[in-house]
Task: inverse folding
């Protein structure tokens, strides 16, 4: 299926991209979600696993636990993406879902040494163009802040196994807490779910303070909850929000177009993002911004 690039206000996008290009890489930082934003949503028509699914589908989880996790998904996922429910109403459901899933995982005697193996055996896939994306940011000293409601240990391991875990990357996510024998006993810090990323971003304001001068932001996400990921950044000058619309496309298209500057529909690549980065960094051909 052909990917589509949608913009509600192409003129405005052109203005923001122009401002980002004039300021260049020195003023830029990237803030991104991970699951289904940097990682693929589907491959050959089959859903790709999120960082949670990688554990759910692995040998280290009992069949009983897998069934319970699947039941939770079928109950809560429709609530998460329901366009007719306000976010406020979704919040308690999301906390309930993540908490129950974490409790189930903690009963599984997962050892920290098993994480690398599970990731290596999984069907985890990043979007096409991911190497160019990570390399470009690293080579140009552009900070990449990944704010994920997934499992930090898993997504970090995915990036590590691809040899792309560069020093310019900072991850905030649900990291596992292992006991002294190395077994999972809980999760560290504040629970991060789809719709509380703004408070997580604000809690990391000290990270953003260090990046003073990086007042231009490229924000990448795939849900309405990702729109608040830059809330902890002081004195933002320009922000370009790029949204991957992966699921329930017809139902969600208008809302995404109202919220994101650029909407990438059914696009399993980072081509548009990489093209924009090259343009901002004066490395590539001119990027043509056309609305639809």
Result:
């Amino acid at each position: 299926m052909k990917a589509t690039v949608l913009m509600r206000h192409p003129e405005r996008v052109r203005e923001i991209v122009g401002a980002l290009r004039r300021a260049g890489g020195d003023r830029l930082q990237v803030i991104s979600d991970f699951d289904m934003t940097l990682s693929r949503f589907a491959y050959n028509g089959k859903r790709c696993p999120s960082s949670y699914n990688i554990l759910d589908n692995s040998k280290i989880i009992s069949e009983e636990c897998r069934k319970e996790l699947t039941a939770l998904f079928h109950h809560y996922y429709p609530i998460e993406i329901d366009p007719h429910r306000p976010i406020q109403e979704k919040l308690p459901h999301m906390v309930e879902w993540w908490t129950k899933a974490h409790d189930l995982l903690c009963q599984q005697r997962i050892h920290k040494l098993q994480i690398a193996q599970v990731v290596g055996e999984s069907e985890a896939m990043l979007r096409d163009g991911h190497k160019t994306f990570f390399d470009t940011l690293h080579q140009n000293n552009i900070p990449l802040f990944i704010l994920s409601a997934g499992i930090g240990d898993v997504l970090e391991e995915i990036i590590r196994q691809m040899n792309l875990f560069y020093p310019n990357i900072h991850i905030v996510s649900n990291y596992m807490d292992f006991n002294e024998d190395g077994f999972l006993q809980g999760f560290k810090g504040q629970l991060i779910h789809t719709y509380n990323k703004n408070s997580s971003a604000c809690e990391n304001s000290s990270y953003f303070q260090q990046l003073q001068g990086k007042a231009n932001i490229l924000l990448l996400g795939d849900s309405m909850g990702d729109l608040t990921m830059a809330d902890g950044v002081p004195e933002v000058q320009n922000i370009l929000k790029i949204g991957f619309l992966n699921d329930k496309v017809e139902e969600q298209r208008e809302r995404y177009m109202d919220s994101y500057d650029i909407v990438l529909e059914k696009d399993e690549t980072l081509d548009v993002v990489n093209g924009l980065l090259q343009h901002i960094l004066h490395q590539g051909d001119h990027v043509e911004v056309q609305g639809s």
The two ends are 18 Å apart (CA to CA).
